[in-house]
Amino acid sequence: MTMVHRIAASLLFSAVVFVTTSAVSAQPKPGHLDEVLRQMDAASLKFQSAEANFRWDLYERVVKQTTTQTGTIYFKKQGATTVMGAKIVSPTTKLLDYRDGRLRLFDPGTNHLTIVTSKGNQAQMESFLTLGFGGSGKDLAKA
Asked: How do the pLDDT tens digits run along the chain, 143 residues long?
């Protein structure tokens, strides 16, 4: 797995874990899926943006080494879509941007831009990224 794919996977995992852990305390009773989807629909109309500091621990099993990255992540609603980005500040600066089905990773140190497309999985990727950050219950049910 390349560094870009590991970062993309970590980013996706971090977003899902963040949403899951923050939603645990507010979950309704089991069997109330329609109620949850309606609440998501109502909340998605009000969502504008979210930003948080993060710490990612990437473990490389082959060499048994953990690399820690820190920075900020944001989600912002632009029309009917939600864009996501992150700025990694440690150990080196890197910029991530996900919009229009493309993940862009820019390394200012090498002045290198890597673009990864979600190809046939764009709807699925976007539903994971927007879960809890402006995604509606209807969109989640479709995905």
From this structure: 455 455 555 554 454 444 444 444 455 566 677 887 788 778 777 778 889 898 989 899 999 999 999 999 998 888 777 788 999 999 999 999 988 878 899 999 999 999 888 776 666 666 556 555 556 666 666 65
Report d(CA 83, CA 70) in Å as an integer.
Answer: 20
Determine the angle formed by the axes of helices 3-23 and 122-130, rounding to 10 degrees: 40
On whether the CB atoms of residues 41 and 136 are closer than 8 A, the answer is yes
Q: How far is CA 86 from CA 47, 95, 112, 127, in A?
A: 19, 6, 16, 18
Residue spans of alpha helices (H) in the chain = 3-23, 33-46, 122-130, 137-142
H-helix or E-strand spanning residue 80: none
Q: Identify residue 5 by its one-letter amino acid code.
A: H
Three-class DSSP category at 76 = strand
- For residues 123 and 141, what is the distance between their CA atoms, to the nearest angstrom? 12
